[in-house]
Design brief:
The protein is elongated. It is 48% helix and 12% strand. It is of the alpha+beta class. It holds the Pfam family Pyridoxal_deC.
Length: 695
């Protein structure tokens, strides 16, 4: 199969050479050769379905190469001198466990190399610390066996310093294996030096299926080794016809796409990444995590809000005077908002192929990797522009929500009957729960009465038709119901919002309690009415006598001496909660007047909104707001005039006539001034002409 791959590569090289000769192009001495030309010479290929399978075979080959007696003595050789496999901390999760399970090695054979903490990228392997680990393992009698480097990490696409790692591996006799998405750029004419150094490694794993949009194409592991017997023992070569046919889909795909098709797809994906990266650099409150990787086909970004006294370029590092709790709260808030942003962008621009991921240091981020998605989704440059426009449109919502969170928390904590619920996974303004009278604060179980109150509260809030979204769900870390308030797209009056929630919930609780009390009163009233009616029936039987109860005799007796029976019943007064006789109703043909029912409880204050203004909006500022305010003030002045004039007329009617020498009180002067102002307003307004008939 390696021979067939070499032939296919040679065909592609000859095609490119002929094209360059026809166009009269000559490669400069400093240029990097074209695709598949001198990249990985004297190498063999192993085709496999599982991406990690090739690395497991390479580890087995390295064990057979370093332990000459492994075939005879088996694991006794490994016990005397334990092999060590070095993996980066930014490697794919579960890779080390997979290798140990496939090779039958214990987990102590794995060594996790940390990434840089002081200098360089935080996703690149720390070379100095790796060398220290290698020296420590040699001193303890262990054998450094294999190092797995990344040419594009699984998370953010960073490339390790492969050139420096290759020197370190040659110094200590360690097998170097490279994997990552940035290896696809080897097919381009110009490659970064860090990725180009991967051609000098001992083995590498390529995944051309996702790169070219071909789902049925196997992965390829290229390796350099001169002993065919060891490669056969390691399982890298086989004489089975089925194993040889694994390369057929890849070979046919390469023949169909051709050299230009392969280069064009990879080049298009890299151009999309560069286009998004250049556009995001001009957007505020967006941080790019791959700014130092100019040729990386992966772009990772996140929304952030600058902390007071922090460096905008290093937002992950808080200011020295910032409290750790504030930093942690800010981190959780930004993570929830970035998770919401990623989901919104995935829905608005589905062709972008975005993914939301959680990083250990940076937190929740959004990743754009067109090299693995553009060929399948058909991502174009217009999709990248639409993605940037959607990000810019969502930034005001994110910043406004993040600013209102602390204010909402303080308002809820200062309002009686409301409990602020700190839910780090909710991206909205906040979560609040109403504590009713029978609420057990120590219990974490569901509360049926609380669920009923919160269900009514949710219905009332949604009926207000505001710009906010309200949802009901279980509380974080408990089963009690809460109200979740969504994102804020504009300046919201948080105090009005909190007061509305508290007042509405209190009204629902009081109404439900009134209904329960009324139900109990009605039930007792019905029982009492039944007893009274039964007693009245017995008294009627005693008055009429027994003879009148006999069917025939009673009819004759009633015909000779009729009984003047009055209609008596019972009526229940819901307001007073008492039983009354219906004799008054039948005699006077009118119902008795009950007690006036109590008023429905309402809030302490109701904010007056202008026409067209939605709930929970702050007062407008500007010229329009000034004109509206002035008109409202005129109306208030007119109402004040009527009030003062009414009070003055009443006082004049009840008081003796004022003497001419008595001075006018200040209230009268104020009333006169207001009347003059009202008269001027009426003069300024256009007068409507009265019809002749009315005159």
């Amino acid at each position: 199969m390696g021979k067939n791959l070499k032939e296919a590569m040679k065909m592609l090289e000859d095609s490119q050479r002929r094209t360059e000769e026809e166009n009269g192009k000559k490669l400069l001495s400093g240029d990097i050769p074209g695709p598949l030309q001198g990249r990985y010479e004297n190498g063999c290929a192993y085709f496999h379905e599982e991406e990690r399978e090739g690395l497991a075979k390479i580890c087995r080959l390295a064990i057979h190469s370093r332990y000459e007696d492994f075939v005879v003595d088996g694991f006794n050789v490994l016990y005397n001198k334990t092999p060590v496999i070095y993996l980066s901390a930014a490697a794919r999760p579960g890779l080390g466990q997979y290798l140990c399970n496939q090779l039958g090695l214990p987990f102590p054979c794995l060594c996790r190399v940390p990434c840089n903490t002081m200098f360089g990228s935080q996703h690149q392997m720390d070379v100095a610390f790796l060398e220290k680990l290698i020296k420590d393992d040699i001193e303890r009698g262990r054998l450094p066996l294999l190092l797995v480097a990344n040419a594009g990490t699984a998370a953010v696409g960073h490339t390790d310093k492969i050139g420096r790692l290759k020197e370190l591996c040659e110094q200590y006799g360690i097998w170097l294996h490279v994997k990552g998405v940035n290896l696809a750029t080897l097919a381009l004419g110009y490659v970064s030096s860090s990725v180009l150094a991967a051609t000098k490694c001992d083995s590498m794993t390529l995944t051309p299926g996702p790169w070219l949009g071909l789902p049925a194409v196997p992965a390829v592991t290229l390796y350099k080794h001169d002993d065919p017997a060891l490669t056969l023992v390691a399982g890298l070569t086989s004489n089975k016809p089925t194993d040889k046919l694994r390369a057929l889909p890849l070979w046919l795909s390469l023949q169909y796409l051709g050299l230009d098709g392969i280069v064009e797809r990879i080049k298009h994906a890299c151009q999309l990444s560069q286009r998004l990266q250049e556009s995001l650099k001009k957007v505020n409150h967006v941080k790019i995590l791959v700014e130092d990787e100019l040729s990386s086909p992966v772009v990772v970004f996140r929304f952030f809000q600058e902390l007071p006294g922090s460096d905008p370029g290093l937002n992950a590092i808080p200011a020295p005077n910032t409290a750790p709790s504030a930093v942690s709260q800010e981190r959780h808030s930004c993570d929830a908002l970035n998770r919401w942003l990623g989901e919104q962008l995935k829905q608005l621009v589905p062709a972008s192929g975005l993914t939301v991921m959680d990083l250990e240091v940076e937190g929740t981020c959004v990743r754009f990797s067109p090299l693995t998605t553009a060929a399948v989704l058909g991502t174009r440059g217009e999709d990248v522009d639409q993605l940037v426009a959607c990000i810019q449109s969502q930034l005001p919502v994110l910043t406004c929500t993040l600013q209102l969170r602390e204010e909402f928390k303080q308002e809820v904590m200062g309002t009686a009957g409301l409990l602020y619920v700190d839910d780090p996974n909710w991206p909205g303004i906040g979560v609040v729960r109403y504590e009713h009278a029978n609420d057990d604060k120590s219990s974490l179980k569901s509360d049926p009465e609380g669920e009923k109150i919160h269900a009514g509260l949710l219905k009332k809030l949604n009926e207000l038709e505001s710009d906010l979204t309200f949802k009901m769900g279980p509380e974080y870390k408990s089963m009690k119901s809460c109200i979740y308030i969504g994102m804020a797209s504009d300046d919201i009056d948080v105090s009005e919002l909190v007061e509305t929630i508290a007042v509405t919930a209190r009204e629902i609780e009081e109404n439900s309690r009134l209904l329960e009390n009324m139900t109990e009163v009605v039930r007792k009233g019905i029982q009492e009415a039944q007893v009274q009616l039964q007693k009245a029936n017995e008294e009627r039987l005693l008055e009429e006598g027994v003879l009148r109860q006999i069917p025939v005799v009673g009819s004759v007796l009633n015909w000779f001496s009729p009984v003047q029976a009055s209609q008596k019943g019972r009526t229940f007064n819901l307001t007073a909660g008492s039983l009354e006789s219906t004799e008054h109703t039948y005699v006077y043909k009118v119902q008795g007047s009950g007690v006036t029912p109590p008023q429905t409880p309402s809030g302490a204050r109701t904010k007056q909104r202008l026409p067209g203004q939605k709930p929970f909006k702050r007062s407008l500022r500007g010229s329009d707001a000034v004109s509206e305010t002035s008109s409202v003030s005129h109306i208030e002045d007119l109402e004040k005039i009527e009030h003062l004039s009414g009070g003055q007329d009443a006082s004049e009617a009840n008081s003796p006539e004022r003497h001419p020498g008595v001075p006018t009180p200040p209230e009268a002067e104020q009333t006169g001034a207001l009347q003059d102002r009202a008269q001027r307003l009426e003069d300024d307004c256009p007068q409507v002409e009265e019809p002749e008939s009315l005159r």
